[in-house]
Amino acid sequence: MCWRVSVFALCSMLVWGSRARGEADDALQRCFCQVTGNLDDCICDVETIDRFNNHKLFPKLQKLVESDYFRYYKVNLKKPCPFWNDTSHCGVRDCAVKPCSSDEVPGFKSPGYKYTEEANHLDEHLYECEKEKRLSAVDESLSEEALKAMLKWNQHDDSADNFCELDDEDSPDAEYVDLLKNPERYTGYKGEDTWRIWNSIYEENCFKPKAVPKPLNPFIPTRGENDGKVFYNWLEGLCVEKRAFYRLISGLHASINVHLSAKYLLKETWMDKIWGHNITEFQKRFDAALTQEEGPKRLKNLYFIYLIELRAISKVLPFFERSSFLLYTGNHSKDIENKQLLLDVLHDANNFPLHFDEHSLFSGDKREADKLKEDLREHFRNISRIMDCVGCFKCRLWGKLQTQGLGTALKILFSEKQIENLTDSSQSSGFHLKRQEIVALFNAFARISTSVNELETFRKLLQNIQDP
Ligand SMILES: *[C@@H]1O[C@H](CO)[C@@H](O)[C@H](O)[C@H]1NC(C)=O
Ligand SMILES: *[C@@H]1O[C@H](CO)[C@@H](O)[C@H](O)[C@H]1NC(C)=O
Ligand SMILES: *[C@@H]1O[C@H](CO)[C@@H](O)[C@H](O)[C@H]1NC(C)=O
Ligand SMILES: *[C@@H]1O[C@H](CO)[C@@H](O)[C@H](O)[C@H]1NC(C)=O
Ligand SMILES: *[C@@H]1O[C@H](CO)[C@@H](O)[C@H](O)[C@H]1NC(C)=O
Protein backbone atom coordinates (compact mmCIF):
# COMPACT_ATOMS: atom_id res chain seq x y z
CA MET A 1 0.00 0.00 0.00
CA CYS A 2 2.23 2.65 -1.27
CA TRP A 3 0.04 5.65 -0.91
CA ARG A 4 -0.99 5.31 2.67
CA VAL A 5 2.62 5.26 3.59
CA SER A 6 3.34 8.11 1.30
CA VAL A 7 1.38 10.75 3.14
CA PHE A 8 2.87 9.74 6.39
CA ALA A 9 6.25 8.89 5.21
CA LEU A 10 7.04 10.70 2.05
CA CYS A 11 9.07 13.10 3.95
CA SER A 12 10.43 10.78 6.41
CA MET A 13 10.36 8.98 3.10
CA LEU A 14 13.80 8.46 2.05
CA VAL A 15 15.15 8.69 5.52
CA TRP A 16 17.00 5.50 5.11
CA GLY A 17 19.65 7.48 3.30
CA SER A 18 20.56 9.02 6.63
CA ARG A 19 22.17 5.75 7.47
CA ALA A 20 25.54 7.37 7.19
CA ARG A 21 27.62 6.53 4.22
CA GLY A 22 31.34 6.78 4.49
CA GLU A 23 31.50 10.05 2.65
CA ALA A 24 28.49 11.50 4.43
CA ASP A 25 30.33 14.71 4.91
CA ASP A 26 30.86 15.74 1.39
CA ALA A 27 28.87 18.38 -0.36
CA LEU A 28 26.68 16.07 -2.35
CA GLN A 29 25.75 13.98 0.63
CA ARG A 30 24.96 16.94 2.78
CA CYS A 31 22.20 18.03 0.43
CA PHE A 32 20.99 14.72 -0.85
CA CYS A 33 21.81 12.07 1.71
CA GLN A 34 18.20 11.64 2.75
CA VAL A 35 16.84 12.17 -0.70
CA THR A 36 17.24 8.75 -2.19
CA GLY A 37 15.99 5.24 -2.08
CA ASN A 38 12.80 3.53 -1.12
CA LEU A 39 9.69 4.63 0.58
CA ASP A 40 9.62 2.25 3.49
CA ASP A 41 7.83 -0.92 2.47
CA CYS A 42 6.56 0.36 -0.83
CA ILE A 43 7.91 0.55 -4.30
CA CYS A 44 7.98 4.34 -4.46
CA ASP A 45 11.42 5.78 -4.66
CA VAL A 46 13.02 9.02 -5.65
CA GLU A 47 15.01 7.45 -8.45
CA THR A 48 11.82 6.31 -10.18
CA ILE A 49 10.36 9.77 -9.93
CA ASP A 50 13.58 11.24 -11.30
CA ARG A 51 13.63 8.91 -14.27
CA PHE A 52 9.96 9.30 -15.01
CA ASN A 53 10.09 13.04 -14.75
CA ASN A 54 13.43 13.91 -16.30
CA HIS A 55 13.24 11.63 -19.30
CA LYS A 56 9.56 11.39 -19.99
CA LEU A 57 7.33 14.08 -18.60
CA PHE A 58 9.58 17.09 -18.30
CA PRO A 59 10.37 17.57 -22.03
CA LYS A 60 6.71 17.24 -23.01
CA LEU A 61 5.55 19.61 -20.31
CA GLN A 62 8.10 22.17 -21.42
CA LYS A 63 6.76 22.04 -24.94
CA LEU A 64 3.19 22.28 -23.69
CA VAL A 65 3.65 25.37 -21.55
CA GLU A 66 5.40 27.14 -24.39
CA SER A 67 2.29 26.90 -26.54
CA ASP A 68 0.07 29.94 -26.92
CA TYR A 69 -2.72 28.58 -24.79
CA PHE A 70 -0.47 28.14 -21.78
CA ARG A 71 1.88 31.06 -22.06
CA TYR A 72 -0.61 33.80 -21.30
CA TYR A 73 -1.79 34.00 -17.73
CA LYS A 74 -4.40 36.46 -16.56
CA VAL A 75 -3.52 37.89 -13.20
CA ASN A 76 -4.11 40.90 -11.05
CA LEU A 77 -0.75 42.05 -9.75
CA LYS A 78 -2.11 45.27 -8.35
CA LYS A 79 -4.20 43.99 -5.50
CA PRO A 80 -3.16 45.63 -2.27
CA CYS A 81 -1.74 43.47 0.46
CA PRO A 82 -4.63 42.84 2.88
CA PHE A 83 -2.49 42.09 5.91
CA TRP A 84 0.11 44.76 6.35
CA ASN A 85 1.43 47.94 4.87
CA ASP A 86 4.21 47.59 2.45
CA THR A 87 7.41 48.76 4.05
CA SER A 88 9.98 47.08 1.93
CA HIS A 89 12.33 49.36 0.09
CA CYS A 90 13.45 47.42 -2.87
CA GLY A 91 11.35 45.51 -5.29
CA VAL A 92 8.07 47.28 -4.69
CA ARG A 93 6.33 49.73 -6.95
CA ASP A 94 8.33 52.64 -5.67
CA CYS A 95 11.58 50.91 -5.33
CA ALA A 96 14.49 53.16 -5.94
CA VAL A 97 12.11 56.01 -6.38
CA LYS A 98 11.32 56.55 -2.73
CA PRO A 99 13.70 55.17 -0.17
CA CYS A 100 16.39 54.77 -2.69
CA SER A 101 16.17 58.06 -4.55
CA SER A 102 19.28 60.13 -4.46
CA ASP A 103 17.60 63.34 -3.31
CA GLU A 104 16.71 61.62 -0.06
CA VAL A 105 20.35 60.98 0.48
CA PRO A 106 21.76 64.34 1.43
CA GLY A 107 24.88 65.37 -0.29
CA PHE A 108 24.86 62.30 -2.38
CA LYS A 109 25.99 64.07 -5.47
CA SER A 110 28.44 66.49 -3.94
CA PRO A 111 31.98 65.96 -5.12
CA GLY A 112 34.29 64.34 -2.70
CA TYR A 113 31.44 62.71 -0.83
CA LYS A 114 31.47 59.95 -3.33
CA TYR A 115 34.75 58.73 -2.04
CA THR A 116 33.84 58.39 1.60
CA GLU A 117 33.09 54.96 2.84
CA GLU A 118 29.51 55.88 3.61
CA ALA A 119 28.96 57.05 0.10
CA ASN A 120 30.30 53.87 -1.27
CA HIS A 121 27.89 51.99 0.89
CA LEU A 122 24.94 54.09 -0.23
CA ASP A 123 26.07 53.77 -3.78
CA GLU A 124 26.04 50.08 -3.45
CA HIS A 125 22.61 50.12 -1.87
CA LEU A 126 21.27 52.31 -4.64
CA TYR A 127 22.75 50.06 -7.20
CA GLU A 128 21.28 46.97 -5.55
CA CYS A 129 17.88 48.61 -5.42
CA GLU A 130 18.00 49.70 -9.02
CA LYS A 131 19.09 46.28 -10.04
CA GLU A 132 16.41 44.55 -8.05
CA LYS A 133 13.76 46.83 -9.41
CA ARG A 134 14.85 46.08 -12.92
CA LEU A 135 15.05 42.36 -12.41
CA SER A 136 11.75 42.09 -10.63
CA ALA A 137 9.75 44.12 -13.11
CA VAL A 138 7.13 42.26 -15.07
CA ASP A 139 7.18 42.68 -18.79
CA GLU A 140 3.53 43.24 -19.61
CA SER A 141 3.89 43.82 -23.28
CA LEU A 142 1.68 41.78 -25.55
CA SER A 143 1.44 41.92 -29.27
CA GLU A 144 -1.63 43.49 -30.82
CA GLU A 145 -2.45 40.12 -32.26
CA ALA A 146 -2.28 38.38 -28.90
CA LEU A 147 -4.53 41.01 -27.34
CA LYS A 148 -7.14 40.53 -30.01
CA ALA A 149 -6.98 36.78 -29.59
CA MET A 150 -7.49 37.07 -25.83
CA LEU A 151 -10.78 38.86 -26.34
CA LYS A 152 -11.97 35.97 -28.42
CA TRP A 153 -10.66 33.38 -25.97
CA ASN A 154 -12.83 34.79 -23.23
CA GLN A 155 -15.95 33.88 -25.10
CA HIS A 156 -14.91 30.26 -24.86
CA ASP A 157 -14.76 30.27 -21.11
CA ASP A 158 -17.35 29.72 -18.48
CA SER A 159 -17.06 29.72 -14.76
CA ALA A 160 -17.63 27.75 -11.61
CA ASP A 161 -16.66 27.85 -7.95
CA ASN A 162 -13.15 27.50 -6.70
CA PHE A 163 -10.87 26.05 -4.15
CA CYS A 164 -8.58 29.00 -3.95
CA GLU A 165 -8.97 32.71 -4.24
CA LEU A 166 -9.27 33.64 -7.87
CA ASP A 167 -8.37 37.06 -9.01
CA ASP A 168 -11.38 38.88 -10.22
CA GLU A 169 -10.84 38.38 -13.89
CA ASP A 170 -13.11 41.21 -14.81
CA SER A 171 -11.26 43.67 -12.66
CA PRO A 172 -9.64 46.30 -14.84
CA ASP A 173 -6.43 45.55 -13.02
CA ALA A 174 -6.31 41.95 -14.16
CA GLU A 175 -4.02 41.66 -17.14
CA TYR A 176 -2.61 38.99 -19.32
CA VAL A 177 1.04 38.32 -18.74
CA ASP A 178 3.26 36.48 -21.15
CA LEU A 179 4.97 33.90 -18.97
CA LEU A 180 7.69 33.20 -21.50
CA LYS A 181 8.78 36.81 -21.31
CA ASN A 182 8.86 36.65 -17.53
CA PRO A 183 10.76 33.56 -16.51
CA GLU A 184 10.98 32.75 -12.83
CA ARG A 185 14.54 33.46 -11.80
CA TYR A 186 16.75 35.32 -9.41
CA THR A 187 15.53 38.88 -8.89
CA GLY A 188 17.57 40.06 -5.96
CA TYR A 189 14.41 40.01 -3.84
CA LYS A 190 15.43 38.56 -0.54
CA GLY A 191 16.21 39.33 3.03
CA GLU A 192 13.63 40.42 5.53
CA ASP A 193 10.86 40.83 3.02
CA THR A 194 10.80 37.31 1.75
CA TRP A 195 11.18 36.06 5.28
CA ARG A 196 8.16 38.00 6.31
CA ILE A 197 6.09 36.38 3.61
CA TRP A 198 7.22 32.84 4.29
CA ASN A 199 7.17 33.43 7.97
CA SER A 200 3.55 34.50 8.01
CA ILE A 201 2.73 31.49 5.91
CA TYR A 202 4.51 29.02 8.16
CA GLU A 203 3.72 30.74 11.44
CA GLU A 204 0.14 31.82 10.92
CA ASN A 205 -1.24 29.61 8.22
CA CYS A 206 0.12 26.14 8.74
CA PHE A 207 -1.87 25.28 11.86
CA LYS A 208 1.20 25.82 13.97
CA PRO A 209 0.72 27.00 17.56
CA LYS A 210 3.04 29.80 18.61
CA ALA A 211 4.52 27.63 21.33
CA VAL A 212 6.13 25.43 18.74
CA PRO A 213 9.11 27.24 17.26
CA LYS A 214 9.72 26.80 13.60
CA PRO A 215 13.36 26.01 13.13
CA LEU A 216 15.47 28.41 11.21
CA ASN A 217 13.65 31.64 11.24
CA PRO A 218 16.67 33.94 11.02
CA PHE A 219 14.82 36.79 12.68
CA ILE A 220 14.02 34.89 15.80
CA PRO A 221 17.09 34.12 17.84
CA THR A 222 17.58 30.42 18.04
CA ARG A 223 16.10 28.93 21.11
CA GLY A 224 18.53 26.14 21.48
CA GLU A 225 19.40 22.89 19.86
CA ASN A 226 15.97 21.41 20.31
CA ASP A 227 13.99 23.72 18.09
CA GLY A 228 14.00 21.37 15.19
CA LYS A 229 13.16 18.40 17.31
CA VAL A 230 10.20 20.08 18.98
CA PHE A 231 8.94 21.20 15.62
CA TYR A 232 9.16 17.81 13.98
CA ASN A 233 7.60 16.11 16.96
CA TRP A 234 4.71 18.48 16.65
CA LEU A 235 4.51 17.81 12.91
CA GLU A 236 4.42 14.06 13.43
CA GLY A 237 1.63 14.48 15.95
CA LEU A 238 -0.57 16.31 13.47
CA CYS A 239 -3.33 14.63 11.56
CA VAL A 240 -2.23 13.53 8.16
CA GLU A 241 -4.11 16.27 6.31
CA LYS A 242 -2.48 19.12 8.15
CA ARG A 243 0.88 17.53 7.83
CA ALA A 244 0.34 17.14 4.11
CA PHE A 245 -0.59 20.80 3.98
CA TYR A 246 2.64 21.82 5.65
CA ARG A 247 4.64 19.62 3.32
CA LEU A 248 3.01 21.06 0.26
CA ILE A 249 3.89 24.57 1.33
CA SER A 250 7.42 23.53 2.19
CA GLY A 251 7.74 21.74 -1.16
CA LEU A 252 6.56 24.81 -3.02
CA HIS A 253 9.04 26.92 -1.12
CA ALA A 254 11.83 24.47 -1.94
CA SER A 255 10.89 24.48 -5.60
CA ILE A 256 11.02 28.24 -5.81
CA ASN A 257 14.43 28.22 -4.16
CA VAL A 258 15.73 25.60 -6.58
CA HIS A 259 14.74 27.87 -9.45
CA LEU A 260 16.36 30.90 -7.97
CA SER A 261 19.59 28.95 -7.49
CA ALA A 262 19.42 27.49 -10.99
CA LYS A 263 18.67 30.80 -12.68
CA TYR A 264 21.00 32.98 -10.70
CA LEU A 265 22.31 36.18 -12.19
CA LEU A 266 25.92 35.14 -12.48
CA LYS A 267 27.26 37.93 -14.56
CA GLU A 268 25.97 41.17 -15.88
CA THR A 269 27.57 43.34 -18.47
CA TRP A 270 26.08 46.18 -20.43
CA MET A 271 25.60 43.79 -23.28
CA ASP A 272 23.99 40.83 -21.69
CA LYS A 273 23.16 38.95 -18.58
CA ILE A 274 24.26 35.47 -17.82
CA TRP A 275 21.95 33.30 -15.75
CA GLY A 276 22.99 29.97 -14.44
CA HIS A 277 23.49 27.56 -11.59
CA ASN A 278 24.92 28.93 -8.39
CA ILE A 279 26.01 26.06 -6.20
CA THR A 280 26.79 28.26 -3.24
CA GLU A 281 23.26 29.57 -3.26
CA PHE A 282 21.88 26.07 -3.56
CA GLN A 283 23.99 24.86 -0.65
CA LYS A 284 22.91 27.79 1.45
CA ARG A 285 19.34 26.61 1.12
CA PHE A 286 19.70 22.85 1.09
CA ASP A 287 22.96 21.76 2.66
CA ALA A 288 22.17 19.98 5.91
CA ALA A 289 25.16 21.51 7.67
CA LEU A 290 24.17 25.05 6.69
CA THR A 291 20.46 24.66 7.43
CA GLN A 292 20.42 22.81 10.73
CA GLU A 293 19.46 19.62 8.92
CA GLU A 294 16.48 21.31 7.27
CA GLY A 295 17.69 21.27 3.67
CA PRO A 296 17.23 17.61 2.79
CA LYS A 297 13.76 17.65 4.37
CA ARG A 298 12.84 20.51 2.10
CA LEU A 299 14.01 18.56 -0.92
CA LYS A 300 11.89 15.62 0.14
CA ASN A 301 8.91 17.91 0.37
CA LEU A 302 9.61 18.92 -3.19
CA TYR A 303 9.05 15.32 -4.22
CA PHE A 304 5.93 15.29 -2.11
CA ILE A 305 4.34 18.22 -3.93
CA TYR A 306 5.44 16.62 -7.19
CA LEU A 307 3.50 13.48 -6.40
CA ILE A 308 0.42 15.41 -5.31
CA GLU A 309 0.28 17.53 -8.43
CA LEU A 310 1.06 14.55 -10.63
CA ARG A 311 -1.82 12.72 -9.02
CA ALA A 312 -4.19 15.59 -9.67
CA ILE A 313 -3.11 15.76 -13.29
CA SER A 314 -3.72 12.07 -13.79
CA LYS A 315 -7.14 12.35 -12.12
CA VAL A 316 -8.38 15.17 -14.28
CA LEU A 317 -7.95 13.25 -17.53
CA PRO A 318 -11.73 12.72 -18.09
CA PHE A 319 -12.28 16.47 -18.06
CA PHE A 320 -9.78 17.08 -20.84
CA GLU A 321 -10.64 13.97 -22.80
CA ARG A 322 -14.14 15.18 -23.58
CA SER A 323 -14.39 15.91 -27.26
CA SER A 324 -16.10 19.20 -26.45
CA PHE A 325 -13.01 20.43 -24.63
CA LEU A 326 -10.83 22.75 -26.66
CA LEU A 327 -7.55 24.44 -25.98
CA TYR A 328 -8.96 27.33 -27.88
CA THR A 329 -6.60 29.82 -29.46
CA GLY A 330 -8.30 30.17 -32.81
CA ASN A 331 -5.81 28.21 -34.89
CA HIS A 332 -7.73 25.02 -35.37
CA SER A 333 -4.90 22.76 -36.49
CA LYS A 334 -2.61 24.10 -33.77
CA ASP A 335 -5.34 23.65 -31.16
CA ILE A 336 -5.80 20.03 -32.11
CA GLU A 337 -2.06 19.45 -32.01
CA ASN A 338 -1.85 20.97 -28.54
CA LYS A 339 -4.73 18.94 -27.24
CA GLN A 340 -2.96 15.84 -28.44
CA LEU A 341 0.16 16.89 -26.59
CA LEU A 342 -1.86 17.65 -23.47
CA LEU A 343 -3.56 14.26 -23.56
CA ASP A 344 -0.20 12.65 -24.11
CA VAL A 345 1.08 14.28 -20.91
CA LEU A 346 -2.05 13.26 -19.04
CA HIS A 347 -1.78 9.66 -20.19
CA ASP A 348 1.84 9.54 -19.12
CA ALA A 349 0.84 10.91 -15.74
CA ASN A 350 -1.93 8.36 -15.55
CA ASN A 351 0.47 5.53 -16.27
CA PHE A 352 2.88 6.49 -13.53
CA PRO A 353 2.90 3.36 -11.40
CA LEU A 354 3.59 4.78 -7.96
CA HIS A 355 0.81 7.23 -7.41
CA PHE A 356 0.10 8.95 -4.20
CA ASP A 357 -3.31 7.95 -2.95
CA GLU A 358 -5.44 10.83 -1.85
CA HIS A 359 -7.99 8.53 -0.21
CA SER A 360 -5.92 8.59 2.91
CA LEU A 361 -6.92 12.23 3.19
CA PHE A 362 -10.29 12.98 4.75
CA SER A 363 -10.99 9.35 5.27
CA GLY A 364 -12.25 9.71 8.83
CA ASP A 365 -15.66 10.61 10.16
CA LYS A 366 -17.63 12.42 7.48
CA ARG A 367 -18.52 15.46 9.54
CA GLU A 368 -15.00 15.85 10.82
CA ALA A 369 -13.57 15.34 7.37
CA ASP A 370 -15.78 18.06 5.94
CA LYS A 371 -14.75 20.44 8.66
CA LEU A 372 -11.12 19.65 8.05
CA LYS A 373 -11.48 20.16 4.34
CA GLU A 374 -13.10 23.54 4.95
CA ASP A 375 -10.26 24.43 7.32
CA LEU A 376 -7.62 23.58 4.75
CA ARG A 377 -9.47 25.48 2.10
CA GLU A 378 -9.62 28.53 4.36
CA HIS A 379 -5.92 28.36 5.08
CA PHE A 380 -5.12 27.90 1.48
CA ARG A 381 -7.22 30.88 0.41
CA ASN A 382 -5.39 32.94 2.96
CA ILE A 383 -2.06 31.91 1.53
CA SER A 384 -3.12 32.97 -1.91
CA ARG A 385 -4.02 36.37 -0.41
CA ILE A 386 -0.60 36.61 1.20
CA MET A 387 0.87 36.40 -2.29
CA ASP A 388 -0.49 39.90 -2.84
CA CYS A 389 1.98 41.04 -0.22
CA VAL A 390 5.02 39.89 -2.13
CA GLY A 391 6.89 43.06 -2.95
CA CYS A 392 8.71 41.95 -6.05
CA PHE A 393 6.33 41.80 -8.96
CA LYS A 394 7.92 38.93 -10.78
CA CYS A 395 7.99 36.89 -7.60
CA ARG A 396 4.39 37.85 -6.98
CA LEU A 397 3.43 36.70 -10.47
CA TRP A 398 5.01 33.28 -9.99
CA GLY A 399 3.86 33.03 -6.39
CA LYS A 400 0.28 33.62 -7.40
CA LEU A 401 0.49 31.29 -10.35
CA GLN A 402 1.96 28.48 -8.30
CA THR A 403 -0.46 28.81 -5.41
CA GLN A 404 -3.33 28.85 -7.86
CA GLY A 405 -1.91 25.81 -9.58
CA LEU A 406 -1.63 23.97 -6.31
CA GLY A 407 -5.13 25.10 -5.34
CA THR A 408 -6.42 23.75 -8.62
CA ALA A 409 -4.65 20.44 -8.00
CA LEU A 410 -6.34 20.17 -4.60
CA LYS A 411 -9.68 21.09 -6.09
CA ILE A 412 -9.26 18.23 -8.54
CA LEU A 413 -8.30 15.74 -5.86
CA PHE A 414 -11.37 16.67 -3.85
CA SER A 415 -13.72 16.47 -6.83
CA GLU A 416 -13.05 12.90 -7.79
CA LYS A 417 -16.69 11.84 -7.92
CA GLN A 418 -17.78 14.75 -10.05
CA ILE A 419 -14.91 14.15 -12.46
CA GLU A 420 -15.72 10.47 -12.78
CA ASN A 421 -19.27 11.49 -13.54
CA LEU A 422 -18.25 13.54 -16.55
CA THR A 423 -19.38 12.10 -19.84
CA ASP A 424 -18.11 13.01 -23.22
CA SER A 425 -21.11 15.17 -23.94
CA SER A 426 -21.69 16.62 -20.50
CA GLN A 427 -21.23 20.36 -20.28
CA SER A 428 -18.95 19.89 -17.29
CA SER A 429 -21.76 19.88 -14.78
CA GLY A 430 -20.48 19.66 -11.26
CA PHE A 431 -16.86 20.08 -12.15
CA HIS A 432 -15.25 22.76 -14.16
CA LEU A 433 -11.90 24.43 -14.65
CA LYS A 434 -11.52 27.93 -16.00
CA ARG A 435 -8.81 28.78 -18.45
CA GLN A 436 -6.92 30.62 -15.74
CA GLU A 437 -6.94 27.52 -13.56
CA ILE A 438 -5.86 25.28 -16.39
CA VAL A 439 -2.99 27.58 -17.28
CA ALA A 440 -1.97 27.81 -13.62
CA LEU A 441 -2.23 24.06 -13.04
CA PHE A 442 0.07 23.08 -15.86
CA ASN A 443 2.53 25.90 -15.46
CA ALA A 444 2.77 25.25 -11.75
CA PHE A 445 3.36 21.58 -12.33
CA ALA A 446 5.91 22.42 -15.00
CA ARG A 447 7.76 24.47 -12.37
CA ILE A 448 7.88 21.57 -9.95
CA SER A 449 8.89 19.26 -12.76
CA THR A 450 11.66 21.67 -13.72
CA SER A 451 12.88 21.72 -10.13
CA VAL A 452 13.09 17.95 -9.98
CA ASN A 453 14.99 18.05 -13.24
CA GLU A 454 17.34 20.74 -11.93
CA LEU A 455 18.20 18.60 -8.94
CA GLU A 456 19.98 16.26 -11.32
CA THR A 457 22.18 19.10 -12.48
CA PHE A 458 22.91 20.17 -8.94
CA ARG A 459 23.79 16.62 -8.01
CA LYS A 460 26.38 16.59 -10.78
CA LEU A 461 27.73 20.01 -9.91
CA LEU A 462 28.11 19.06 -6.28
CA GLN A 463 29.88 15.89 -7.23
CA ASN A 464 32.42 17.88 -9.19
CA ILE A 465 33.23 19.98 -6.16
CA GLN A 466 34.54 16.92 -4.43
CA ASP A 467 37.01 15.71 -6.96
CA PRO A 468 38.70 18.76 -8.35
C1 LIG B 1 -1.44 51.21 6.87
O1 LIG B 1 -1.16 52.59 6.87
C2 LIG B 1 -2.31 53.42 6.95
C3 LIG B 1 -1.91 54.87 6.81
O2 LIG B 1 -0.57 55.07 7.08
C4 LIG B 1 -3.04 53.16 8.27
O3 LIG B 1 -4.21 53.95 8.34
C5 LIG B 1 -3.43 51.68 8.32
O4 LIG B 1 -4.03 51.38 9.55
C6 LIG B 1 -2.20 50.79 8.12
N1 LIG B 1 -2.66 49.42 7.99
C7 LIG B 1 -2.05 48.39 8.58
C8 LIG B 1 -2.60 47.03 8.31
O5 LIG B 1 -1.08 48.54 9.30
C1 LIG C 1 -4.30 34.92 7.23
O1 LIG C 1 -2.94 35.33 7.18
C2 LIG C 1 -2.65 36.46 7.99
C3 LIG C 1 -1.22 36.88 7.70
O2 LIG C 1 -0.33 35.87 7.98
C4 LIG C 1 -2.89 36.11 9.44
O3 LIG C 1 -2.62 37.23 10.26
C5 LIG C 1 -4.32 35.64 9.63
O4 LIG C 1 -4.51 35.18 10.93
C6 LIG C 1 -4.66 34.53 8.64
N1 LIG C 1 -6.08 34.24 8.70
C7 LIG C 1 -6.55 33.00 8.75
C8 LIG C 1 -8.03 32.86 8.77
O5 LIG C 1 -5.82 32.02 8.77
C1 LIG D 1 26.45 32.71 -5.74
O1 LIG D 1 25.64 33.05 -4.66
C2 LIG D 1 26.31 33.61 -3.55
C3 LIG D 1 25.28 33.84 -2.47
O2 LIG D 1 24.72 32.63 -2.06
C4 LIG D 1 26.98 34.90 -3.96
O3 LIG D 1 27.69 35.43 -2.87
C5 LIG D 1 27.93 34.62 -5.12
O4 LIG D 1 28.49 35.81 -5.57
C6 LIG D 1 27.19 33.95 -6.24
N1 LIG D 1 28.13 33.53 -7.28
C7 LIG D 1 28.09 34.04 -8.51
C8 LIG D 1 29.11 33.51 -9.46
O5 LIG D 1 27.30 34.88 -8.82
C1 LIG E 1 -1.67 27.54 -37.33
O1 LIG E 1 -0.64 26.71 -36.77
C2 LIG E 1 0.14 26.05 -37.73
C3 LIG E 1 1.12 25.18 -36.99
O2 LIG E 1 0.48 24.10 -36.39
C4 LIG E 1 0.87 27.04 -38.60
O3 LIG E 1 1.61 26.34 -39.59
C5 LIG E 1 -0.15 27.97 -39.26
O4 LIG E 1 0.52 28.95 -39.96
C6 LIG E 1 -1.07 28.59 -38.22
N1 LIG E 1 -2.12 29.34 -38.87
C7 LIG E 1 -2.37 30.58 -38.59
C8 LIG E 1 -3.53 31.20 -39.31
O5 LIG E 1 -1.73 31.21 -37.76
C1 LIG F 1 -23.37 11.54 -10.96
O1 LIG F 1 -24.36 11.41 -11.96
C2 LIG F 1 -25.58 10.87 -11.49
C3 LIG F 1 -26.51 10.65 -12.69
O2 LIG F 1 -26.32 11.62 -13.68
C4 LIG F 1 -26.19 11.81 -10.45
O3 LIG F 1 -27.42 11.26 -9.96
C5 LIG F 1 -25.20 11.98 -9.30
O4 LIG F 1 -25.71 12.91 -8.37
C6 LIG F 1 -23.86 12.46 -9.84
N1 LIG F 1 -22.89 12.46 -8.75
C7 LIG F 1 -22.12 13.52 -8.49
C8 LIG F 1 -21.19 13.37 -7.35
O5 LIG F 1 -22.17 14.55 -9.13
What does this structure look like?
It is a single chain. Strand 5 and strand 6 form a beta hairpin. The strands form three sheets. The chain has a two-stranded antiparallel ribbon. With 468 residues, the protein is mainly alpha-helical. It is built from 17 helices and six strands. It has one domain. It is globular and about 55 Å long. Bound molecules: 2-acetamido-2-deoxy-beta-D-glucopyranose (NAG) (5 copies). One 2-acetamido-2-deoxy-beta-D-glucopyranose binds at residues 331, 333-334, 337. Residues 1-20 form the signal peptide. Belongs to the EROs family. It is a peripheral membrane protein. It is found in: Endoplasmic reticulum membrane.
Mean pLDDT: 74
- Helix count from the secondary structure assignment: 17
Largest sheet: 2 strands, antiparallel
Shape estimate: globular
* Ions, cofactors and other bound molecules: 2-acetamido-2-deoxy-beta-D-glucopyranose
SSE ordering: HHEEHHEHHEHHHEEHHHHHHHH
User: Share of helix among residues?
Assistant: 40-55%
Please outline the helices and strands:
Blueprint: H1 2-13, H2 27-32, E1 38-39, E2 42-45, H3 46-65, H4 68-71, E3 72-76, H5 117-136, H6 144-154, E4 174-178, H7 192-205, H8 227-237, H9 240-262, E5 264-268, E6 273-276, H10 279-286, H11 294-315, H12 317-321, H13 332-351, H14 366-386, H15 393-413, H16 416-421, H17 435-466
The structure holds 2-acetamido-2-deoxy-beta-D-glucopyranose (NAG) (5 copies).
One 2-acetamido-2-deoxy-beta-D-glucopyranose (NAG) is lined by residues 83, 200, 204-205, 378-379, 382, 386.
